[in-house]
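Why does residue order matter? Because the sequence determines the fold. Keep that principle in mind as you read this record.
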Amino acid sequence: MKTNIKSEILDWARNFYTCKQKQDTEREFTKERTLNKRGVLWLGQTCNLRCFFCYFTNKINDKDHPEHKFMSLDKAKEICFKLKTVYGNEYVDIQGGEPTIYPPIYELI
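Structure:
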């Protein structure tokens, strides 16, 4: 008997999302807002991709846009220092464009 892969995938997906919905309804959510210990560092809008869904495309394509270029390493380090010492953040999410192509990424990390 030949199995239908498409049918198996659809069955798996239905089962997966049904289980997920059951879990979500059993969970209790809070309405309290609390700060977490995670800071965000936006390095700039430089990116080597051109995703069709990107909402920063105008900034990425415009080389003269003030937010296009990556910030300097000194400025990035200063922001990280401030996130830790002033705001008490324990983690920093590095974002903006594509941060893995930031030339001094290793030194920043």
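Strands lie at 38-42, 91-95.
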